[in-house]
Amino acid sequence: MTRLLIADDEPAPLAQLAEALAATWPEARLVAQARHGADAWDQWLAHEPEVCFLDIRMPGLTGIDVAQRIAGRSEVVFVTAYGDHALQAFEAGAVDYLVKPLDAARLAQTVARLRQRLQRPAAPAGQALQQLLAQLAHQQPRPAWPDTLQAGVGKEVRLIRVEDVVYFEADSRYTRVVYLEDGRQRDALLRTPLKDLLAQLDPARFQQVHRATVVASARIASALRDDEGGMQLRLRGVPDVLAVSRPFQGLFKPQ
User: What DSSP line would sit under the chain, residue for residue?
Assistant: First the structure.
């Protein structure tokens, strides 16, 4: 059974898409609905659905950001408003997209194409698609990456320089940040959940290696595979060893 994820920051279009898919693709199973990009990515890690319908313009991580993270591991259909500047790029790049409000005939065509593609072995995202996503991501407005983070240590609010961070780890509704200060390992709690914090971190400096872990790229010393198919990271500056979950193991390959 094909598993579906849908994401839209507006409840009415989200409900309309869920209802339309139930009618058009009854044998598929809707496993996750998300109201923003960070939740869509987190739900993808939890369920690894075969097909994702992603609204382009969502707060935090956009649909384009989420598609880049999925990196060809699921089929992606973009959902956008009529007149969006991205439509021309989608048409030129032969990317599946739907325009809001949804048209039943167009959705049926999209589902038919998806059924055909899902019968073939999965293929990594082609270079043309990756370039298109990078181009569209560059066009999306986003705030500057922060230089400091405000974390709680007991009754104290501590300002932590982003450059000192070694890794972030999900801790219930909070995020534990491990960092170096004067050469010593320290940790503190951020009130922002990790899935929401992702949208505030520069992807050139941080990479996710587990649903619950984001690490500073410069702090990674090595990645070691074990006999059971798992992978662990050894870090510079701290003795901690971090597990790499299966969706992220492909990030670490010899060049």
Answer: --EEEEE-SSHHHHHHHHHHHHHH-TTSEEEEEESSHHHHHHHHHHH--SEEEEES--SSS-HHHHHHHHTTSSEEEEEEETT-THHHHHHHHT--EEEESP-HHHHHHHHHHHHHHHTSPP-PPPHHHHHHHHHHHHHS--PPPPSEEEEEETTEEEEEEGGGEEEEEEETTEEEEEEEETTEEEEEEESS-HHHHGGGS-TTTEEEEETTEEEEGGGEEEEEE-TTS-EEEEESSS--EEEE-GGGGGG----
